[in-house]
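Fill in residues.
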């Protein structure tokens, strides 16, 4: 029997989903968010996604990410700037999808540390090939699926403010209190993931 893979490609259903998270977190309390997202599949009052099938896919991924959010994340999210909100959603992506975590820490962050700021599709493709060599599930994905995941990962970086025109960039204008939120939750690794030095905040 094939061992269960920790890699998943389900995030092709949507990138950062900032608009959808902002709309629903504004409308609903944290304790009712998961229930109300199910209602949104039928009513579509806030997420404003045209087809029910697409809403189901997006809601499924939103619920996965919310399940990885620390308690009180919704209030924190609504208290910060849009740029900070997008980074906070990137944090949920890193926590939820091991493939995004792997690509970021095995490809993107090393390139940043080497001041090699041009992140190309080929860089991600090479890492996907390495993962395919030891993970049967990833090896079974079609070339089209792998390319889609490649595109969505890089789109997430762009939407998070960590990349512009294929160049990695350090997000600026972030309030120190934003980083302290993660430090206080023993998640200081996320500061490094955003190209900041946790010792120089």
């Amino acid at each position: 029997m094939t061992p269960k893979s920790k890699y998943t490609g389900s995030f092709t259903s949507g990138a950062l989903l900032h608009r959808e998270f902002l709309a629903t977190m504004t409308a609903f309390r944290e304790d009712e968010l998961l229930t109300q997202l199910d209602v949104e599949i039928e009513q579509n009052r806030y997420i404003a996604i045209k087809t029910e099938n697409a809403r189901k896919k997006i809601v499924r991924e939103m619920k996965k990410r919310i399940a990885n959010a620390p308690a009180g994340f919704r209030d924190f999210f609504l208290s910060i700037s849009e740029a900070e909100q997008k980074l906070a959603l990137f944090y949920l992506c890193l926590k939820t999808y091991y493939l995004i975590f792997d690509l970021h820490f095995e490809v993107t962050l090393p390139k940043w540390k080497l001041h090699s700021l041009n992140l190309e599709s080929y860089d991600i493709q090479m890492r996907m090939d390495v993962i395919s060599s030891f993970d049967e599930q990833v090896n079974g994905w079609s070339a089209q699926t792998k390319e889609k995941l490649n595109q969505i990962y890089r789109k997430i970086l762009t939407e998070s403010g960590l990349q512009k025109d294929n160049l990695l960039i350090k997000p600026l204008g972030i309030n120190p209190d934003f980083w302290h939120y993660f430090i206080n939750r023993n998640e200081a690794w996320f500061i490094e993931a955003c190209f900041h030095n946790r010792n120089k905040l």
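The first strand starts at residue 163 and ends at 164.
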